Amino acid sequence: MNDGHQSFKKILFGFAFSPKLKINLLETTRIAHLFNATLILIHVGERTKEKEDEIHSLLKEIEPSGLSIEIQWKDGKPIKTIRQACVDFKIDLLILGALQHENMYRFYVGSIARKLTRQVSCSVLLLIRPSEIRVACNHLVVNGLNAPNTSKTIASAFYVANTLGAKQITIVEEILNKEIHVAVEDDRSLKKASIIKERLKHREESRVRKIVSALPKIFTQSIKIKNQSIFGKRGYSIGHYAEVVRADLLVMNAPSKSSVFNRIFPHDIEYILSDLPTDLLIIRSQP
Q: Are the folds of 1-134 and 136-249+260-275 the same?
């Protein structure tokens, strides 16, 4: 039963033959197994016997029992090919391996993942900390933006948390400083600004609590839930917070499809993609 969350029953992993291939495959097959999903592996590039032998050899080493895996070999440009594959195979979740602060980092996260998060029809998971041995996912941070898709993103965060066995979810409401509408010049204006901040925090936390209270109890009963209001620049603030609390996964609304406006004024998520604080799950609502 789907209670407003985005289910992950068909997962696509875009892979390259790099030193990180085995560890990314280990993490991806583990995730697919936990979600009881069908896994499709796609390589955009030349298909050779050497490559086929390598991928099949790796899968024999790591494939969990009972996991359905299909390998696709495609020619073409990576972004267009992966985007089309998400449509053709009716993918729920696209997984991309991301390298943090390394030479290939801009290739995976900057030039490809940044565009794919805008253009694909499904949710996207960017892995920056894959592990050979499973590392428990204990703490999720999820955005609590006042936006149309936030309810589904929060519901999906609880779905993921329960599937991965997480113990805590922190819902972050980022509040723009301009909403205070007070220039702090003396003690009186400082007090007024403080009162307005408390009212804004109460408003945002009440809105989020209403979203959480509408979720099935089976989603929320075993998870510690925390609300955190932050004043600052959207995207940057939640990314910094996730890094400070050492969150295992950051869950965000998907950016809107690319437009002239978005190219001139980057979406909140651009701040996170430019310097990933942890693994990032971007939820895109599907019809």
A: yes
Separation between Cα atoms, residue 129 and residue 213, nearest integer Å: 32
70 C-beta neighbours (distance < 10 Å), count: 11
Write out the H or E segment, with its range, that includes residue 57. helix 49-62
CA distance 183 to 68: 59
* Strand ranges inside the chain, DSSP E: 10-14, 38-44, 69-74, 93-97, 123-127, 139-143, 168-175, 224-231, 249-253, 279-283
In this structure, are strands 10-14 and 224-231 parallel, antiparallel, or unpaired? unpaired
* pLDDT tens for the 287 residues of the chain, in order: 345 777 899 999 988 887 888 888 999 999 999 999 999 999 988 899 999 999 999 998 886 667 889 999 999 888 899 999 999 999 999 998 754 443 444 444 445 766 787 788 899 998 887 777 788 899 999 999 888 889 999 999 999 999 999 999 999 988 876 666 556 566 777 777 788 788 888 888 999 999 999 999 999 999 999 999 888 777 778 888 999 999 999 999 887 654 443 443 345 666 676 677 789 999 987 65
Model pTM score: 0.85
Q: Which CATH class is domain 136-249+260-275?
A: alpha beta
Domain ranges of the chain: 1-134, 136-249+260-275
Q: d(Cα 56, Cα 71) in Å, to the nearest integer?
A: 9
Please provide the CATH number assigned to the domain covering 1-134: 3.40.50.620
The span from the CA of 110 to the CA of 102, in Å, is: 12
